[in-house]
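All the exercises in this workshop are built on plain-text protein records. A record pairs a protein's sequence with a compact description of its fold. Read left to right, the backbone structure tokens trace the chain's path through space. Once this layout is familiar, the rest of the handout is easier to follow. Here is such a record, shown just as it appears in the course material:
>
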Amino acid sequence: MPSDEPRPIERTASEPMATRYDLVLAAIPLAFLAGSVAALATGIDASTGVTAGSVGALCALGYAIFGDPPIERGGGGRPS
């Protein structure tokens, strides 16, 4: 007798667990966290640590937008 419960998603070996963009999304808050922890560990001002972390987050964001954007290349402009 069939069940109405949804089956769990099964992953195959060919499917990656995390994509490049998942890693970029994880890197952004980790950069802020690293800056904050570094500020606490070294005794510098917290705003300086968060600012340093924001530079790392900005680099990850810049890579995701300009370095390897999630669009097809060479396809032209907007669809009509």
Helices lie at 20-42, 46-67. The mean pLDDT is 83. The CA atoms of residues 20 and 53 lie 20 Å apart. The radius of gyration is 20 Å.
